[in-house]
Design brief:
Blueprint (H helix, E strand, L loop, with lengths): L15 H18 L1 H24 L12 H11 L2 H23 L33
Length: about 140
Amino acid sequence: MSDPNEPQEPPAVGSVGEEAAKLFGALADLARQQGADLGGGLGGLADQAASLAQDVNSHIATGSAECRYCPVCRVVHAVRETSPEVRTHLLTAASSFLQAAAGLLETVPPADQGAPQRGPEVERIDLDDAGDDTTDGPW
């Protein structure tokens, strides 16, 4: 038997995939244990988030003196004044932009498959070589 006061080595850490699988397994076990109460908790959380968003919305871009100079309040005011069609178009454009950015970030090449190696950016020209005078000009 080992001494309980003796320090023990921690379990070995696996690869990123193995550790992610362990984490997802632990979260799945926790969800199974707490599954019955999860729906009610999420519903309450959603209600609180909606009421908080409503409270924040009533305090942004109120038209007070400080809101006239705040860039966030100016943007909120401009969005409130636009038509629903323009808002829909802006939301669609923002969504498309974010999807394009996410796609761009997913396609970053690995470091070993980057651009081909280029030669030096500057060509060294030796100007002190006096033995090669092929021109008769002043230069």
